[in-house]
């Protein structure tokens, strides 16, 4: 099968979009449907085929076809990579209804931890005997009145010493694995393999709405039974990774929020405390300019 040229034809405004549609039709979806060693183009998919096939056990066949298509379209998409833009950039609506790709994230049968385990197995050959991990939280700002699981959280990037800033969005607790690759042995990448969404506790108070009618300001808040603090979410991910280690051991780094007894008292046996003779991950040689706290006060290690 001849490979598709993604360059637009001279004088054709829609040449690039048409060739991109043919690219997915001839190579990506046919490769998934036939389940055979169909030729894959050198432009994108052939180089990514071993990587993408490593995630195949995490999905059913329909979900894996959506995963494959979205991944390739996400790489080829330029600009802001929202789901709608990714679908439009890859012309994926020619093969499935666009709602199918939205349902891939909301209703498809796949588990995020299984996906993280596949990433962990891919990274394990590049890790030392004692693996180095880190836990931290990050804020993904959102806009809209009915964003599930979003809330007002402290925004460290916009806050100053005199004026703390809170932003609306999702607060994600992330577990990353520190990896050094052979092509750049002097550099270390912190690659996320597990995430948990922090949801605020449900508040029975109602915010005033239009015409004086009470309506909820946030959706997806956690009940008392569902609520987990950020350290509890971090501990949950550490325990999941500990079950994947086998003969390896894990050393976890984190800031002061994740250094309390809610984590340290419940660490698995194959998770080692950090060697305090080494420089902590977020330590600095000078006190914090905003709070005046020393490095030992500002940064603690699990």
Overall description:
The chain has helices at residues 15-34, 45-53, 61-76, 83-89, 98-106, 112-123, 230-242, 261-264, 295-298, and strands at 130-141, 151-154, 166-179, 189-198, 207-208, 214-215, 249-253, 271-272. By secondary structure, the chain is of the alpha/beta class. Helix 8 (261-264) links the parallel strand 7 and strand 8 (271-272). The protein contains nine helices and eight strands. It folds into two domains: 15-106, no CATH class; 112-298, no CATH class. Mean pLDDT is 76; it is low at 1-14, 30-43, 275-290 and 294-302. The relative contact order is 0.09. The termini are far apart. Strands 1, 2, 3, 4, 7 and 8 form a six-stranded mixed β-sheet that branches.
User: How would you state the average pLDDT, rounded?
Assistant: 76
The major pleated sheet works out as: 6 strands, mixed
Which sequence of SSEs, written as H and E, runs from N to C?
HHHHHHEEEEEEHEHEH
- Cα(first) to Cα(last) distance is 55 Å
Radius of gyration: 23 Å
- Strand percentage lies at 15-25%
Q: Write down how many β-strands occur, each being a DSSP E stretch of 2 or more residues.
A: 8
């Amino acid at each position: 099968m001849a490979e598709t040229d993604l360059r637009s034809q001279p004088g054709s405004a829609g040449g690039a979009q048409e060739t991109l549609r043919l690219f997915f039709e001839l190579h990506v979806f046919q490769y998934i449907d036939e389940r055979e060693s169909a030729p894959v183009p050198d432009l994108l998919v052939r180089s990514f085929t071993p990587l993408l096939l490593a995630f195949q056990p995490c999905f059913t066949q329909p979900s894996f076809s959506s995963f494959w298509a979205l991944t390739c379209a996400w790489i080829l998409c330029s600009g802001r990579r929202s789901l709608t833009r990714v679908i439009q950039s890859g012309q994926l609506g020619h093969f499935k209804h666009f709602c199918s790709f939205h349902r891939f994230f909301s209703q498809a049968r796949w588990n995020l931890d299984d996906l993280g385990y596949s990433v962990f197995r891919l990274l394990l050959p590049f890790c030392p005997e004692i693996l180095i991990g880190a836990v931290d939280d990050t804020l993904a700002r959102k806009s809209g009145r009915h964003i599930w699981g979003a809330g007002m959280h402290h925004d460290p990037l916009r806050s100053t010493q005199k004026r703390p800033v809170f932003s609306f969005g999702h607060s994600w607790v992330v577990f990353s694995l520190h990896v050094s690759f052979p092509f750049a042995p002097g550099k270390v990448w912190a690659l996320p393999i597990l995430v948990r969404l922090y949801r605020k506790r449900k508040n029975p108070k109602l915010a005033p709405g239009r015409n004086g009618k009470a309506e909820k300001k946030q959706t997806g808040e956690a009940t008392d039974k569902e609520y987990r603090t950020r350290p509890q979410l971090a501990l949950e991910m550490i325990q999941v990774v500990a079950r994947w280690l086998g003969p390896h051991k894990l050393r976890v780094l984190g800031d002061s929020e994740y250094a309390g007894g809610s984590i340290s008292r419940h660490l698995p046996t194959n998770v080692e405390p950090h060697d305090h003779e080494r420089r902590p991950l977020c330590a600095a040689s000078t006190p914090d300019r905003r709070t005046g706290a020393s490095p030992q006060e500002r940064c603690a290690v699990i």
